[in-house]
Amino acid sequence: MEVKPMSAAISSIALLKNFDVRNVRSLEEIVVPLDKDKGLKLLKGIVAVK
Fold this sequence. Notes:
Strand content: under 5%
Radius of gyration: 14 Å
Distance between the termini: 13 Å
Largest sheet: none
Number of strands: 0
Number of helices: 2
């Protein structure tokens, strides 16, 4: 998993190209419930990997 802030310099189209998305209709939005503790744990895990 990769977590990145969406910057103004990166367009949605560039992001789709980066992930080699060829069919936009195949995409699915998923809402992941995340409370403060789970969010901090996730961020700490990402920082530890780098």
